[in-house]
Amino acid sequence: METLLEIKNLSKSFDLHNLGKHIRAVSSVDIQIKEGEFVGITGKSGSGKSTILKCIYGTYRIQQGSILYHSKKFGRINLAEATERELLYLRKHEIGYVSQFLNVMPRTTARQLVKQAILEMGDDHDLAEKETEKILAHFELDEELWDSYPTTFSGGEKLRLNIARAMVKKPRLLLLDEPTASLDHDSKIKVKLLIEQLMKEGTTMLGIFHDLEFMNHLCNQEYNIQNGVFSHSTSFTNS
Ligand SMILES: Nc1ncnc2c1ncn2[C@@H]1O[C@H](COP(=O)(O)OP(=O)(O)OP(=O)(O)O)[C@@H](O)[C@H]1O
Ligand SMILES: [Mg+2]
User: Fold this and answer.
1) Which listed residue, 2, 86, 167, 189, has the most CB atoms within 10 A of its CB?
2) pLDDT tens figures, 181-224
3) Cβ atoms of 151 and 119 closer than 8 Å
């Protein structure tokens, strides 16, 4: 299998000018992900896990290192040097992201949010509408909520909507930041089912998990951050 994502020696720090502080969020990160793999990142709170995903997604620009991604459209591209336009294209068509904390557009209903995500892929309206209802139902989001604004949703409802919105696009690469953290057991199973289904359809996944036990048989590799040191702790060959 081809390498889909290769991160070499990535470091990210923040200068907080008003406080005169320099915060090192992560350093010396090396990750290699092959097409079709499910890769997990674990580590303590504040160790820099979310920062890594945000660097890949282009939310944060990095000071050092490279993030080589094998794009369908652009071929091999260093995301660390990609233009805003290239990043926008990739976010629409190739790279999905489920953020740890959902921030939703005001005055957009749950249905509109999901439908927009599908339409960005170029599907027609009727199909998009069908797919939207299918995935909202899969995550058992109460039908009464479909045409409401997610700002008033509970944490778990927001999270399920967020996951639905990212997954419905069937991206080439999906970044998941603790997608099951605040969900009950049944909802976790639903997420896992969709992860399995997406993997079958060829989506490669990089996810942050509190512990990987729940995802264990899906996981091909685990990376871990301990005391600021990033390491490759396990490769599973059983999948
Ligand atoms: N935009 C930012 N500005 C300043 N510091 C930041 C910023 N983003 C992250 N940091 C800092 O970088 C460090 C790593 O944060 P990050 O959110 O990546 O941790 P995490 O491993 O995802 O933690 P958690 O498990 O709690 O979500 C923290 O010390 C955090 O305060
Ligand atoms: Mg985090």
Assistant:
1) 167
2) 888 888 888 888 889 999 999 999 999 998 788 887 889 999 99
3) no
- pLDDT, residue 212, reads 80
Instruction: Break the chain into its structural domains and give their ranges.
Output: 3-94+171-235
Give, to the nearest 10 degrees, the angle between helix 155-167 and helix 125-138: 140
CB 55 near ligand 1, within 6 Å: no
pLDDT of 32-70, one tens digit each?
999 999 999 999 999 999 999 999 999 999 989 999 999
Percentages of the chain per state (helix, strand, coil), in multiples of 5? 40, 30, 30
Give the distance (Å) from ligand 1 centre to CA of residue 148.
31
Distance CA 223, CA 221 (A): 7
Q: How far apart are CA 115 and CA 122, in angstroms?
A: 11
The answer as to CATH 1.10.10.10 being correct for domain 3-94+171-235 is: no
State the CB neighbour count (10 A cutoff) for residue 57. 20
Residues in the chain: 239
By DSSP bridging, strand 3-16 and strand 204-208 are: unpaired
In what side-by-side order are the strands of the sheet with 3-16? Answer: 21-34, 3-16, 64-71, 75-78
C-beta 109 within 6 A of ligand 1: no
Average pLDDT score over the chain = 91
59 touches ligand 1 (CB under 6 Å)? no
Does ligand 1 come within 6 angstroms of the Cβ of 100?
Answer: yes
- 11, 18, 51, 102: which to mutate for ligand 1, most atoms within 8 A of CB? 51
Task: Write the CB contacts of 191 (distance below 8 Å, at least 6 apart in sequence).
Answer: 163, 179, 180, 183
